[in-house]
Amino acid sequence: MASDPGTPTLDQLHVFLTVVEAGSFAGAARRLNRATSVMSYAIANLEAQLGVTLFDRESTRKPKLTEAGQAVLAEARVVRDGIDGLRAKVRGLLRGLEAEVHLALDVMLPPARVADALKAFQAEFPTVTLRLHVEALGAVVQAVLDGTAAVGVGGPLAADTGGIERVGVGSVDLVPVAAPGHPLARAGKNPPGAAREHVQLVLTDRSRLTEGRDFAVASTRTWRLADLGAKHLLLREGIGWGNMPLPLVEEDLASGRLVRLDMPDCRGGPYPLDAIYRGDAPPGPAGTWLVRRFREQAGT
User: Fold this and answer.
1) Could you read off the pLDDT of 122-168 as tens digits, one per residue?
2) Fewest CB within a 10 Å sphere: which of 4, 75, 92, 226?
3) Which of 273, 271, 270 shows the shortest CA–CA distance to 295?
4) What pLDDT is stored for residue 243 in this prediction?
C-alpha cells in the first residue's frame, strides 16, 4: 500500500458517501443514475488512490466499511458539508445576501428577545455569519455610525443622531433597586431627595456621543460601570443602588435578593428601543430581516 495517499476527486467522495448511505453499490447506482459497474470502478479507484481498503466485500453480501473506511467516511462528510456550505453561501451572495452581518445590541435589551431573534436568524440564514457587539448607551449608535455594525438596537440616544434611520421596537422597563440591607431598601417609602445621599451605580460607555452627559443620575455620589453584569453583581452585594432593566432582575425581586425602591423622584420608567441603521448604507436582506424580527417581537 502507498504511504503517501493521492487526492480524491469530489465525485469519488460523492460516490463513496452514496454507497454508504444507500447500503449497496446497486442502490447507489440507482440514486446517481449510473451503472453498478461504474460505482464499483469508482470505489476501486478511490481505494487505490488513498492506499486503503474502504469496504469489506468478502465476509458480507453487502459492502461493509472497514476500520479505514469508517475513518475516511467521517472526513468525507466534512468535505461534502463544506462544499455544500460553500455553494449555499455563493448562492446567497448571487442573490444579494450578505456574507456576514455585524449587529450591535444595547445591553438593556432583554436576553429573551436576543435569544429569540438570533435563534430564528440562524435558522433563516444558516450561511450568514453573525458578528455580535453588546454595547451600552451611545456605543450602539457609534458602532452603526462608524460602520462597525450594519444594524443596531439602541436606546433613546439614537433619536438625537443625524444620519440614522430608526424603527421602533418597543421598550424595556427600568426600575430602581438595591439589596434588602441597603438603607434605601430598609426605609420602605423614601422622601424626595433621599437617593442623593447614597452611591448610585451608573452605566456608562466609551463612545464620543455621551461624553459629559449623564442619564437618570440622581445621586451626587456615583460609581461608573461599563458592564451591566458588573452593576448587577454590585447591586446584589449591597454596594449602592441603581436602575436595572426589569426582566434582568425579576428573579432577584421575587427571591428577595433585590428590592424595588420606593422613591417619588426616582421611579425609573420605560427605556425606548429602536432598531437603527445608517440612511446611506441600509442593510441587506439578512440585516433587514433582523430589523423586522425585533419589530415583530414588540408587536409594532
Assistant:
1) 999 998 899 999 988 788 988 998 889 999 998 877 556 667 888 99
2) 4
3) 273
4) 92
CA atoms of 214 and 237, how far apart (whole Å) = 24
Dihedral of CA 145/146/149/154: which sign?
negative
- For residue 258 the three cell numbers come to 433585590
Q: What DSSP letter does each residue of 171-203 carry, written as one string?
A: EEEEEEEE-TTSHHHHTSBPPTTGGGGS-EEEE
For residues 19 and 16, give the distance between their C-alpha atoms in angstroms, rounded to a whole number: 5
Average pLDDT over residues 172-186: 93
What confidence tier does 298 reach under pLDDT thresholds 50, 70, 90?
Answer: confident
- Residue 210 per-residue DSSP state: G
Any idea what DSSP says for residue 126?
A: T
Minimal CA–CA distance to 1: which of 55, 43, 53?
A: 53
Residue 80 contacts residue 74 (beta carbons within 8 Å): no
Residue among 181, 199, 180 at smallest CA distance from 256: 180
Of 181, 185, 171, nearest to 274 (Cα)? 171
Residue 124 phi/psi, 5° resolution?
A: -80, -35
Residue type, 180: P
How many CB atoms are located within 10 Å of the residue 252 CB?
A: 18
Return the SS3 of 214: coil
CA pair distance 149, 144, nearest whole angstrom: 5
Among 8, 10, 9, 29, which Cα is nearest to 18's?
29
